[in-house]
Design a protein that fits this description.
Elements (H helix, E strand, L loop, with lengths): L1 H17 L5 H69 L1
Length: 93
């Protein structure tokens, strides 16, 4: 992404200097467009970083939820074994 951002001013400079017939109003307009493109690219990069951070947080939350679910399952299985053992002992008496 950063390499693309670095290319924008170079392309604009090449266009501006390559066109000898360009008047100053056109140059200003092209510079404004280039600045807008850079601003939008920077904003998009910031949004992408924010989305990545949120995805990482969601991944951590999902991992914690999975661990809690495994612990609950282990507890249920232990309780089932205890209940079955108590039932079998009561039936033998």
């Amino acid at each position: 992404m950063k390499s693309h951002l670095a290319l924008i001013p170079l392309v604009v400079a090449a266009l501006v200097t390559g066109c000898a017939s360009t008047n100053s109003a056109d140059m200003v307009a092209m510079q404004d467009m280039a600045k807008q493109a850079m601003d939008r690219a920077a904003a998009a990069e910031a949004m992408a970083k924010q989305a990545s951070a949120k995805a990482d947080a969601a991944d951590r939350n999902a991992a914690a939820a999975m661990e809690a679910a495994r612990d609950a399952q282990a507890c249920c299985q232990a309780n089932t074994r205890r209940i079955n053992r108590a039932f079998e002992e009561s039936m033998q008496k």
